[in-house]
Amino acid sequence: LPPPPPDARIPLPGGGALIKIPGEGDLLALTVDDGVNSEVVRAYTQFAKDTGVRLTYFVNGTYDSWTENKEMLRPLVDSGQIQLGNHTWSHPDLTALPKDQIARQLTRNDEFLKQTYGVGAKPYWRPPYAKRNAVVDAVAADLGYTVPTLWSGSLSDSTLITEDYIVQMAEQYFTPQAIVIGHLNHLPVTHVYPQLVDFIRERNLRTVTLNDVFLKTP
User: Fold this and answer.
1) Predicted confidence band of residue 28 (pLDDT cuts 50, 70, 90)
2) DSSP summary character for residue 217
3) What is the spatial distance between Cα 157 and Cα 216, in angstroms, rounded to a whole number?
4) E strands within the chain?
5) In the chain, what are the domain boundaries?
6) Residue 15 has pLDDT above 80, yes or no
7) pLDDT exceeds 70 at position 218
8) What is the signed CA dihedral for 114, 2, 190, 87, rounded to 10 degrees?
9) What is the pTM of this model?
10) pLDDT > 70: what percent of the chain?
11) InterPro entries, alphabetically (predicted)?
12) Spatial distance between the Cα atoms of 61 and 204, rounded to a whole number of angstroms
């Protein structure tokens, strides 16, 4: 199903983290993180090309997968089907870093995204391990990263788990207005794309990027 028309976009809710899509509706934001495994990045991107599913990738630029798959991924970024968000350069616990290093993690990754894909990620960032505090949020906001993006459901695949378990998680969490987190790290998810699509279609959900849902901030 197509994403909502641009005139249906809503303002970003202010204050605090984004955990699910506000309001009632039929939207599903599937957001996938890291990029440890180049083959998984390639497979997810092919999945998007084959099905039209809309995705948001939260990128750690330190991983070679983002450079290796640039030619395949960039056209989908250009078209808006895949949005890129900032997940820091190298996935540290930001709450354990001094302010200058917190800032560097975000700015280095931002520069990488602009150089490699021609897009910035602001205002969306995802703190590694969901670890954030007032200091981290303030540093991020000063850089234009005002929307820490968390999730309401998870495929639980940051570590290696079975295909069956991923399908169970999708069945549980692919619900209206959910933001679901997955990972570009391990191969099992690449074997269950048909089941993921079945849930989306059976439930009449529309996959969206964050930019599909929210008005651009100035």
Assistant:
1) very high
2) P
3) 30
4) 27-34, 55-59, 82-86, 124-125, 147-148, 153-154, 178-183, 206-207
5) 18-213
6) no
7) no
8) 30
9) 0.95
10) 99
11) Glyco_hydro/deAcase_b/a-brl (IPR011330), NODB_dom (IPR002509), Polysacc_deacetylase_ArnD (IPR050248)
12) 34
Six-digit token pair at 131? 């670890």
Structure token pair of residue 215: 């008005």
* pLDDT tens string 137-189: 999 999 999 999 999 999 988 888 899 999 999 999 999 999 999 999 999 99
Residue with token string 């202010």 = 14
Q: What is the CB neighbour count within 10 angstroms for residue 95?
A: 14
103 vs 94: CA distance, rounded Å? 9
Tokens of 30: 């599937």
Average pLDDT along the chain: 95
- Given a cut of 80, is residue 102 above it in pLDDT? yes
CA dist 45 and 55 (Å) reads 9
Q: Which residue has the tokens 């074997």?
A: 191
Using the structure block, give the residue that is written with the tokens 């590694």. Answer: 128
Is the CATH number 3.20.20.370 carried by domain 18-213? yes
Least Cα distance to 123 among 213, 47, 22, 195 occurs for 213
Q: How far apart are CA 59 and CA 33, in angstroms?
A: 6
Residue 116, token pair as written in the block: 């490699």
User: Going by C-beta distance under 8 Å and a sequence separation of 6 or more, which residues neighbour residue 21?
Assistant: 27, 29, 177, 178, 179, 208, 213
CA distance 124 to 7: 21
- Kindly give the interhelix angle for 38-51 and 70-79, rounded to the nearest 10 degrees: 40
